[in-house]
């Protein structure tokens, strides 16, 4: 049976019929040599298990906050390769405030699951949840150490919490019957006091990624090799200056920043001199595309007024 086409509906006076829109608005910028291999937009969703829907991971996560002098923007974006293949985002991101008022602590935790592991995204999610829970339960002691500038106590305390987190990961991997070292993730955390009088910024974690600062329009690479006395734990306490932009990121964003000068220059122009983008603009900035880099990107940037 053939159907006769319906006549278009009659429009009210002064209305015009919609026209097909072909132009794509908001395509991420591209820097470096040549266009990237993959499409700029998500393609396929990962396969879902109806009995394990709590393991689903959104393609993109975006968050932000403002506390006194601090303005925070953070984003986690599934990589071009994973988007094309319908694989889940291996990076996990968690933002949390523990406590109230000037005694509160702000935590941003990000983790990247092992590249070849089927449970990489679940390991990353467990990592950020468990470290955040440990930090939250230790908030009073950490806040006291911060006020008293007890760097040694902060380092040893956060190292202990991180070790416990990785102990839980190993135990979880054993429960799942996985090979040793399979159920794991790299971890990067930024701990910030909400007290407007404090300019201390604490970084700690395990594994690859990046810690950078834009000061006076110039990029500074603050990342450290693991402490020889406590490898592979990393710890750094920095003091912010007005106008600083502090960036912590996963390896998927650190690698193009270090490898493509045009990307670093582009973001210095966008984020330097105290320029704080809105959430949508920050997402667009972190999506700036570079040929040859297709991994997940997770980043947090903290601006000091």
Characterization of this structure:
By secondary structure, this protein is an alpha+beta fold. It has a single domain (38-304), classed as PPM-type phosphatase domain (Phosphatase 2c, domain 1, 4-Layer Sandwich). It has seven helices and 13 strands. It has helices at residues 80-85, 120-137, 139-147, 151-175, 251-259, 261-271, 279-286, and strands at 30-31, 60-67, 70-77, 91-98, 105-113, 185-193, 200-206, 210-215, 218-221, 233-239, 245-249, 289-290, 297-304. It has a six-stranded antiparallel sheet. Strands 4-5-6-7-10 form a five-stranded antiparallel sheet. β2 (60-67) and β3 form a beta hairpin. The longest helix has 25 residues, at 151-175. The chain starts with 29 loop residues before the first strand and ends with a strand. Residues 78-284 form the PPM-type phosphatase domain. It holds the Pfam family PP2C_2. This is Protein phosphatase 2C domain-containing protein. It comes from Streptomyces polygonati.
Helical fraction: 25-40%
Reported CATH architecture: 4-Layer Sandwich
Under CATH, the topology is which?
Answer: Phosphatase 2c, domain 1
Strand arrangement within the widest β-sheet reads 2-3-13-11-8-9
Helix tally?
7
Task: Tell me the fraction of residues in β-strands, as a range.
Answer: 25-35%
The figure for the number of domains is: 1
Shape: globular
Q: What integer value in Å does the Rg equal?
A: 22 Å
Distance between the termini: 70 Å
Class by helix and strand content? alpha+beta
Taking pLDDT < 50 over at least 5 consecutive residues as the criterion, the unreliable ranges are: 1-5, 20-25
Broad CATH class: Alpha Beta
Q: What does the average pLDDT come to?
A: 90
Organism: Streptomyces polygonati
Pfam families: PP2C_2 (PF13672)
Protein name: Protein phosphatase 2C domain-containing protein
Domain PPM-type phosphatase: 78-284
């Amino acid at each position: 049976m053939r159907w006769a086409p319906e006549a278009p509906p009659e429009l009210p006076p002064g209305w015009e019929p919609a026209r097909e829109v072909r132009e794509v608005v908001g395509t991420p910028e591209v820097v470096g040599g040549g266009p990237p291999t993959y499409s700029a937009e998500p393609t396929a969703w990962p396969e879902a298990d109806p009995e394990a829907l709590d393991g689903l991971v959104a393609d993109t996560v975006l968050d932000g906050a403002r506390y006194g002098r601090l303005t925070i923007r953070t984003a986690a974006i599934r990589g071009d390769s994973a988007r094309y293949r319908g694989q889940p985002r291996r990076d996990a991101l968690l933002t949390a405030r523990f406590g109230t008022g000037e005694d509160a602590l702000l935590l941003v935790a990000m983790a990247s699951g092992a590249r070849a592991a089927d449970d990489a995204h679940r390991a990353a999610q467990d990592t950020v949840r468990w470290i955040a829970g440990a930090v939250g339960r230790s908030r009073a002691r950490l806040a006291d150490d911060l006020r008293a500038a007890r760097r040694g106590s902060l380092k040893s305390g956060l190292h202990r919490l991180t070790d416990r987190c990785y102990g839980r990961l190993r135990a979880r991997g054993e429960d799942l019957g996985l090979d040793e070292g399979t159920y794991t993730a790299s971890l990067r955390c930024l701990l910030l006091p909400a007290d407007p009088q404090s300019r201390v910024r604490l970084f700690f974690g395990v594994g690859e990624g990046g810690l950078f600062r834009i000061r006076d329009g110039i990029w500074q690479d603050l990342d450290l090799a693991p402490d020889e006395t406590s490898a592979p734990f990393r710890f750094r306490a920095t003091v912010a200056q007005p106008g600083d932009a502090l960036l912590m990121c996963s390896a998927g964003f650190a690698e193009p920043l270090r490898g493509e000068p045009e990307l670093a220059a582009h973001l210095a122009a966008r984020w330097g001199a105290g320029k704080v983008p809105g959430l949508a603009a920050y997402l667009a900035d972190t999506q700036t595309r570079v040929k040859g880099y297709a991994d997940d990107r997770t980043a947090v940037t903290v601006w000091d007024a």
